[in-house]
Amino acid sequence: MNNIFKNFFFIFLTIFLINSNVSSEEEKIKIGVLVPMTGANKELGQLIIKSTRMALEDINTNILEIYPKDTASDPNQTLKSAQEFIEMGVDIVVGPIFYKSLLYLDELENITFLSLTNKIVDLPKNVISSGINATSQLNAIKKFIKSSDLKKTIFLMPKQNYEVEVKKAIKNSNIKLYKTHLYNTEPTQLTKQIEKITNYKIRKQNLADEIRRVQNSDLPDKEKQIEKLNKRYTIGNLKFDSIIISDFDESLKSVVTSLLYTDVSPKNKQIITFNQWFDESLMNEDSLQPIYYPSINKKNLDNFNKKFFNKFGEQPNHLSLLSYDLIGLIYYLSLKNDMAELDKLFKKKNSFKGKIGIFDIQNNKINHRLNFYEVNDGNLKKIF
């Protein structure tokens, strides 16, 4: 009798343990990390892998598992690795990084990609852009324009591939613009276009006409007036009070230089640009200041960079923090929702507070509530 009882208990225990293991296995959330691990961008991929693992350690949970795979920055290799994820039972993927890597991913079903790209146009249906897109930036700029009581903002954008993204973002954000102008980044053409936008030749002629008028007048203080006029470059009001420039790096500086040439200065017209990722060279350019732009939470970025360096002995980049946050986002959604209905998670309205800032999720889109900064007198100041 005792042997029968022992055998029954052993069978029961075995079944219980098997079921427990199955249940435990079912509760695991397998996260793919799809980044370049070979080729020219492998260092970038390694930074992202390290960031996701650091996030996993900080969350300190055993329900998340991370599986990195290589894209080699190639669409075909990206598809192959993504297919392997499906075979492994991975439902959600952080990556790919580059827009070109998304090319064939719409061939796959039942898997969601949180791409690190900031492009929002022509994405495959199973890809959600998680980068700091133009819509998020214009939402922050719109808030600044309203709080600063700016009434006539012109928008300058280069004739490049990014133009389509920016036009889409203007529509998405419902930002009110006085006028929109496209410009050629070639220096000679750029200056001529800025001259036209700012009515430079007319304003310059106005000055010449005024000097001539005073010279031919009988005004008692005309010499003093002429001396004062000679210190000016133009005369005439501009029809705008602020300028948004959707450009970066040296190209951005070229646009501002052309504006300065036409007597339009950041000192008299507010110049706003897109996310510059705290470009320190802007701090050293007095002629560009003050200049304003939206970006992520600077304090959190600095703290993350310090922690990352102390752990790995190398500096991360801005995609490192984004990938770190995406692991936190997936964990947050897993606590509030059934991960079996993953295809619905990003359709519902939801918000998540990450290190970058607040993620707003709805209709398979991610937008970011960004901070806003002023660079002036060599200093960075947070506006909101």
Structure description:
This protein is α/β, with parallel strands linked by helices. It has helices at residues 2-27, 42-59, 75-88, 134-147, 163-173, 187-197, 200-215, 222-229, 249-261, 298-312, 318-336, 342-345, and strands spanning 29-35, 64-70, 92-94, 112-115, 127-129, 153-158, 179-183, 242-245, 270-273, 291-295, 350-353, 358-362, 365-369, 371-376, 379-382. The chain has 2 domains: 2-131 and 298-346, Response regulator (Rossmann fold, 3-Layer(aba) Sandwich); 135-295 and 372-382, Response regulator (Rossmann fold, 3-Layer(aba) Sandwich). The protein has a 7-stranded mixed beta sheet, with helices on both faces. A 5-stranded parallel beta sheet has the order 2-1-3-4-5. The chain has a 3-stranded antiparallel beta sheet with strand order 11-12-13. Helix 5 links the parallel strand 6 (153-158) and strand 7. Helix 2 (42-59) packs parallel to helix 11 (318-336). It is elongated and about 90 Å long. The termini are far apart. The model is unreliable at 4-25 (pLDDT under 50).
Give me the CATH architecture of the largest domain, please: 3-Layer(aba) Sandwich
How many helices does DSSP assign?
A: 12
What's the average pLDDT?
92
The proportion of strand residues reads 15-25%
Globally, the shape reads: elongated
Question: Structural class given helices, strands, pairing?
Answer: alpha/beta
The Cα radius of gyration reads 28 Å
Biggest sheet details: 7 strands, mixed
CATH-defined superfamily of the largest domain = Response regulator
> Could you tell me the number of beta strands?
15
Distance between the termini: 76 Å
Query: Uncertain segments of ≥5 residues (pLDDT<50)?
Result: 4-25
Order of helices and strands: HEHEHEEEHEHEHHHEHEEHHHEEEEE
CATH topology of the largest domain: Rossmann fold
